Backbone:
Protein backbone atom coordinates (compact mmCIF):
# COMPACT_ATOMS: atom_id res chain seq x y z
CA UNK A 1 0.00 0.00 0.00
CA UNK A 2 1.11 3.50 -0.70
CA UNK A 3 1.97 5.85 2.14
CA UNK A 4 2.48 9.61 2.22
CA UNK A 5 4.49 11.33 4.94
CA UNK A 6 4.65 15.01 5.80
CA UNK A 7 7.29 15.39 8.50
CA UNK A 8 6.61 19.05 9.33
CA UNK A 9 3.40 19.40 11.39
CA UNK A 10 3.85 23.19 11.49
CA UNK A 11 5.75 25.77 9.49
CA UNK A 12 5.87 29.55 9.55
CA UNK A 13 7.03 32.16 7.07
CA UNK A 14 7.25 35.92 6.91
CA UNK A 15 5.03 37.64 4.42
CA UNK A 16 6.76 38.03 1.01
CA UNK A 17 9.33 35.34 1.79
CA UNK A 18 9.65 31.81 0.44
CA UNK A 19 8.80 28.59 2.24
CA UNK A 20 9.14 24.93 1.30
CA UNK A 21 6.87 22.17 2.58
CA UNK A 22 8.16 18.61 2.49
CA UNK A 23 6.43 15.43 1.39
CA UNK A 24 7.76 11.93 0.88
CA UNK A 25 5.88 8.89 -0.33
CA UNK A 26 6.36 5.20 -0.69
CA UNK A 27 5.16 3.23 -3.70
CA UNK A 28 6.19 0.38 -5.96
CA UNK A 29 4.19 1.73 -8.91
CA UNK A 30 5.83 3.31 -11.93
CA UNK A 31 3.00 5.64 -12.84
CA UNK A 32 1.17 7.83 -10.40
CA UNK A 33 0.07 11.36 -9.67
CA UNK A 34 0.91 13.66 -6.82
CA UNK A 35 -1.13 16.58 -5.55
CA UNK A 36 -0.92 19.39 -3.05
CA UNK A 37 -4.22 20.53 -1.53
CA UNK A 38 -4.77 23.57 0.63
CA UNK A 39 -7.31 23.72 3.46
CA UNK A 40 -7.82 27.26 4.79
CA UNK A 41 -9.72 28.01 8.02
CA UNK A 42 -12.99 27.64 6.09
CA UNK A 43 -11.97 23.96 5.75
CA UNK A 44 -12.77 23.95 2.02
CA UNK A 45 -10.20 21.76 0.26
CA UNK A 46 -8.61 23.49 -2.73
CA UNK A 47 -6.23 21.95 -5.25
CA UNK A 48 -2.96 23.88 -5.41
CA UNK A 49 -0.84 21.92 -7.86
CA UNK A 50 -0.48 18.49 -9.44
CA UNK A 51 2.35 16.43 -10.93
CA UNK A 52 2.45 13.27 -13.03
CA UNK A 53 5.29 10.92 -12.22
CA UNK A 54 6.25 10.48 -15.89
CA UNK A 55 6.74 14.18 -16.46
CA UNK A 56 10.31 15.30 -15.88
CA UNK A 57 9.47 18.96 -15.61
CA UNK A 58 8.41 20.25 -12.22
CA UNK A 59 4.91 21.70 -12.14
CA UNK A 60 4.37 25.38 -11.45
CA UNK A 61 1.22 27.41 -10.79
CA UNK A 62 1.95 31.10 -10.32
CA UNK A 63 3.73 31.42 -6.93
CA UNK A 64 3.51 27.69 -6.26
CA UNK A 65 6.03 25.20 -7.60
CA UNK A 66 7.13 21.70 -6.78
CA UNK A 67 10.45 19.93 -6.55
CA UNK A 68 9.70 16.40 -7.69
CA UNK A 69 12.50 13.92 -7.07
CA UNK A 70 11.20 10.57 -8.33
CA UNK A 71 14.16 8.46 -7.28
CA UNK A 72 14.07 9.90 -3.78
CA UNK A 73 10.26 9.72 -3.71
CA UNK A 74 10.08 13.32 -2.63
CA UNK A 75 7.51 15.95 -3.64
CA UNK A 76 8.06 19.29 -1.92
CA UNK A 77 5.97 22.43 -2.40
CA UNK A 78 7.60 25.85 -2.66
CA UNK A 79 5.54 28.95 -2.04
CA UNK A 80 7.20 32.15 -3.23
CA UNK A 81 6.28 35.68 -2.15
CA UNK A 82 4.10 34.30 0.64
CA UNK A 83 0.84 36.11 1.28
CA UNK A 84 -1.42 36.19 4.32
CA UNK A 85 -4.01 34.26 2.34
CA UNK A 86 -1.59 31.35 2.01
CA UNK A 87 -2.04 30.54 5.68
CA UNK A 88 -3.69 27.12 5.74
CA UNK A 89 -3.21 23.41 6.27
CA UNK A 90 -1.45 21.87 3.29
CA UNK A 91 -1.89 18.23 2.36
CA UNK A 92 0.20 16.14 0.02
CA UNK A 93 -1.70 13.35 -1.74
CA UNK A 94 -0.93 10.34 -3.94
CA UNK A 95 -3.05 8.73 -6.63
CA UNK A 96 -2.30 5.56 -8.55
CA UNK A 97 -1.79 5.74 -12.30
CA UNK A 98 -3.59 2.42 -12.71
CA UNK A 99 -7.12 2.88 -11.33
CA UNK A 100 -9.25 -0.23 -11.22
CA UNK A 101 -12.29 -1.51 -9.39
CA UNK A 102 -10.48 -2.01 -6.11
CA UNK A 103 -8.20 1.01 -6.02
CA UNK A 104 -10.40 3.36 -7.97
CA UNK A 105 -9.10 6.86 -8.27
CA UNK A 106 -8.71 7.24 -4.54
CA UNK A 107 -6.24 9.60 -2.96
CA UNK A 108 -3.90 8.77 -0.10
CA UNK A 109 -3.18 11.84 2.03
CA UNK A 110 -0.32 12.83 4.29
CA UNK A 111 -0.93 14.16 7.79
CA UNK A 112 -0.73 17.78 6.74
CA UNK A 113 1.45 20.82 7.47
CA UNK A 114 -0.05 23.86 9.14
CA UNK A 115 1.42 26.97 7.54
CA UNK A 116 1.38 30.29 9.38
CA UNK A 117 2.19 33.50 7.52
CA UNK A 118 3.46 36.32 9.71
CA UNK A 119 2.87 39.94 8.63
CA UNK B 1 -22.92 26.65 -10.62
CA UNK B 2 -21.53 23.13 -10.52
CA UNK B 3 -20.29 21.78 -7.27
CA UNK B 4 -20.73 19.55 -4.28
CA UNK B 5 -23.09 20.24 -1.43
CA UNK B 6 -23.06 18.64 1.98
CA UNK B 7 -25.69 18.94 4.63
CA UNK B 8 -26.01 19.69 7.40
CA UNK B 9 -22.97 21.83 8.17
CA UNK B 10 -23.14 20.90 11.87
CA UNK B 11 -24.73 17.77 13.28
CA UNK B 12 -25.17 16.66 16.84
CA UNK B 13 -25.92 13.10 17.78
CA UNK B 14 -26.67 11.31 20.97
CA UNK B 15 -24.79 8.12 21.67
CA UNK B 16 -26.54 5.09 20.22
CA UNK B 17 -28.19 6.98 17.38
CA UNK B 18 -27.59 6.51 13.68
CA UNK B 19 -27.20 9.67 11.61
CA UNK B 20 -27.01 10.24 7.87
CA UNK B 21 -24.83 12.84 6.20
CA UNK B 22 -25.91 14.07 2.81
CA UNK B 23 -23.66 14.60 -0.22
CA UNK B 24 -24.91 15.75 -3.62
CA UNK B 25 -22.93 16.71 -6.74
CA UNK B 26 -23.99 18.19 -10.07
CA UNK B 27 -20.63 17.82 -11.77
CA UNK B 28 -21.65 14.63 -13.59
CA UNK B 29 -18.77 12.81 -11.90
CA UNK B 30 -18.77 9.03 -11.78
CA UNK B 31 -16.74 8.64 -8.60
CA UNK B 32 -17.65 9.85 -5.13
CA UNK B 33 -15.76 9.56 -1.85
CA UNK B 34 -16.20 10.01 1.88
CA UNK B 35 -13.29 11.08 4.07
CA UNK B 36 -12.96 11.56 7.79
CA UNK B 37 -10.68 14.24 9.21
CA UNK B 38 -9.54 14.31 12.84
CA UNK B 39 -7.43 17.06 14.44
CA UNK B 40 -3.77 16.74 13.54
CA UNK B 41 -4.44 14.00 11.03
CA UNK B 42 -4.87 13.86 7.32
CA UNK B 43 -7.95 12.70 5.49
CA UNK B 44 -8.78 9.03 5.81
CA UNK B 45 -10.96 7.29 3.25
CA UNK B 46 -14.17 5.73 4.57
CA UNK B 47 -15.97 4.56 1.41
CA UNK B 48 -15.92 5.31 -2.27
CA UNK B 49 -18.10 4.55 -5.27
CA UNK B 50 -17.23 4.53 -8.95
CA UNK B 51 -20.65 3.62 -10.32
CA UNK B 52 -24.26 3.61 -9.24
CA UNK B 53 -25.22 0.68 -6.98
CA UNK B 54 -21.59 -0.19 -6.31
CA UNK B 55 -19.16 0.97 -3.63
CA UNK B 56 -15.92 -0.08 -1.99
CA UNK B 57 -14.66 0.07 1.58
CA UNK B 58 -11.85 2.46 2.27
CA UNK B 59 -9.38 2.31 5.13
CA UNK B 60 -11.79 2.98 8.02
CA UNK B 61 -15.20 1.64 6.94
CA UNK B 62 -16.15 -0.02 10.23
CA UNK B 63 -19.21 1.61 11.79
CA UNK B 64 -20.20 3.37 8.56
CA UNK B 65 -22.50 2.52 5.68
CA UNK B 66 -23.24 4.13 2.31
CA UNK B 67 -25.55 3.83 -0.65
CA UNK B 68 -25.30 4.98 -4.25
CA UNK B 69 -28.76 4.81 -5.79
CA UNK B 70 -28.23 7.87 -7.98
CA UNK B 71 -25.14 9.19 -9.69
CA UNK B 72 -25.55 12.55 -8.00
CA UNK B 73 -25.96 11.34 -4.43
CA UNK B 74 -23.75 9.42 -2.00
CA UNK B 75 -25.12 9.57 1.57
CA UNK B 76 -23.07 8.34 4.52
CA UNK B 77 -24.67 6.79 7.59
CA UNK B 78 -22.72 6.84 10.82
CA UNK B 79 -24.04 3.95 12.86
CA UNK B 80 -24.02 3.37 16.59
CA UNK B 81 -21.26 0.82 15.97
CA UNK B 82 -18.80 3.63 15.21
CA UNK B 83 -16.92 4.02 18.50
CA UNK B 84 -15.63 7.53 18.08
CA UNK B 85 -17.71 9.33 15.46
CA UNK B 86 -16.95 12.92 16.44
CA UNK B 87 -15.02 14.30 13.46
CA UNK B 88 -15.16 16.44 10.36
CA UNK B 89 -16.52 14.59 7.32
CA UNK B 90 -15.67 15.54 3.75
CA UNK B 91 -17.33 14.32 0.58
CA UNK B 92 -15.56 14.49 -2.77
CA UNK B 93 -16.13 13.55 -6.39
CA UNK B 94 -14.08 13.10 -9.53
CA UNK B 95 -14.11 11.66 -13.01
CA UNK B 96 -12.28 8.37 -13.35
CA UNK B 97 -11.02 7.90 -16.87
CA UNK B 98 -9.85 11.39 -17.69
CA UNK B 99 -6.28 12.58 -18.08
CA UNK B 100 -5.20 10.84 -14.91
CA UNK B 101 -4.34 13.93 -12.94
CA UNK B 102 -7.98 14.85 -12.58
CA UNK B 103 -8.54 16.54 -9.29
CA UNK B 104 -11.03 15.52 -6.67
CA UNK B 105 -13.53 18.25 -5.90
CA UNK B 106 -14.55 18.57 -2.27
CA UNK B 107 -17.70 19.66 -0.52
CA UNK B 108 -17.68 22.12 2.40
CA UNK B 109 -17.85 19.34 5.00
CA UNK B 110 -20.05 18.32 7.93
CA UNK B 111 -18.93 18.62 11.53
CA UNK B 112 -20.42 15.74 13.55
CA UNK B 113 -20.39 15.90 17.33
CA UNK B 114 -21.56 13.11 19.59
CA UNK B 115 -23.05 14.38 22.83
Residues:
Amino acid sequence: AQTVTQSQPEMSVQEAETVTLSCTYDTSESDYYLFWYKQPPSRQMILVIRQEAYKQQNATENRFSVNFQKAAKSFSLKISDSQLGDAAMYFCAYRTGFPDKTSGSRLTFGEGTQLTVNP
Amino acid sequence: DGGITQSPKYLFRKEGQNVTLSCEQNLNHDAMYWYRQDPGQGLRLIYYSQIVNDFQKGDIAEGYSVSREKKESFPLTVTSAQKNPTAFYLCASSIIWGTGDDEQFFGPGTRLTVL
Notes: Chain A touches chain B at residues 4, 6, 9, 33, 35, 42-45, 47, 50-52, 91, 95, 97, 99, 101-102, 104-112 (CB under 8 Å). Chain A has a mean pLDDT of 93. DSSP finds no helices and twelve strands in chain A. The CA atoms of residues 38 and 46 of chain A lie 5 Å apart.
